[in-house]
Amino acid sequence: MSQSSFNYVRKDLPASLQKIGFILMGIGVVGGAGAFLLNAEQAFFNYLLGFMFLMSIGVGALFLISLEYVAGADWSTPLRRIIEFTASITPYLIILAIPILLNMHSLFHWSHTEVVESDKILKEKAPYLNETFFLIRVAIVFALWTLFYFLLTKNSRKQDVSKDQNLTKLNIRLSAVFIPLFAITASVASIDWMMSLEPHWFSTIFGVYFFSGSVLAALAVITFATVKLKEAGYLHPKMVDDHYYSLGALLFAFVNFWGYIAFSQYMLIWYANLPEETFWFLARWQGSWVYISLALIFIHFIVPYSILLSQPAKMDAKKLKFASLWILFAHLLDLYWLILPTYQGESSVLTFVLGLSFPITAIGGIILLFYFHSKKINMVPVGDPKLERGLKFRL
Predict the structure, then answer these.
(1) Would you say 87 and 153 are in contact if contact means Cβ atoms under 8 Å apart?
(2) What does the alpha-carbon distance between residue 232 and residue 41 come to, in Å, rounded to a whole number?
(3) pTM higher than 0.90, yes or no?
């Protein structure tokens, strides 16, 4: 333990959390290996699902760090380290992407030269959809995300010791640069990794759809972690339920925003009734996919909307924890609905079960990142000039 300002005492997270993380990682690795042995082609689609789950949470949290600085928010300052810990997924994305990059032919139809040569539409898209340019975009996008993650978190942690207020001003300027870059890079990433799985299809708001789901998922992780850590005494003792309310209100806002964007995308494509757009949705309204499409409406929108609708619910620790876990499951289902219909090969119940190993591995990885960061870094940004105002925040 170490004593810091504002009566905050830093405590290490329990070793049992590390064990849980390693157990989940172990289950995921073993199950994932079994998935590849059983059906390697489908396993790559399941791996992509786990990869996008991590990517969305990591970059969603990175956006929230920047948003706090640009907006000048005070209430979120006591929670920022939790947001930073969540964003620490970002630097590992390029490593996790390597298996996909080495096996692009298993996932991306447009990566087959002979297919492109015989397809007029893919020929026209070839200047963008080609392996060389894809790799360049991946390198640029991940490099930008990693660069801004390290710059923002380095200044934040340095401030714990120096108490230099100029570091906050520097992070505000960095965040102002990052947010428009985030809008571009997040759109590019969503198009490259998911929309291009169906290279004939396109949606002009797919990037916004990915953004809404990513920020919502990141908020769910942050909210669940905040409530659990506050209940266990790891956060600042002066935090009050008003901080919970702000998190609950943001969750509710982004549940509505996701629902609005999801409906808008569907409605515009349905109304235009163009074959080059409608086939993507038609594939998800056939066979067993129709049940998932219908379930997504209830699971991703109606249920969390109902849970978080009232003001007291936004301050209720139990409801916030339940809503956060529910939203994370809904986000995973959403990614499954986006990615897996593209797979056209044979499948089985065992293959489906083993495919869940990749998201389990992702969850274990997030837990371990929280644990190892808590060993070295204050859970509260004690040097931030906004901390005292954040602790005094009241509705």
Answers:
(1) yes
(2) 43
(3) yes
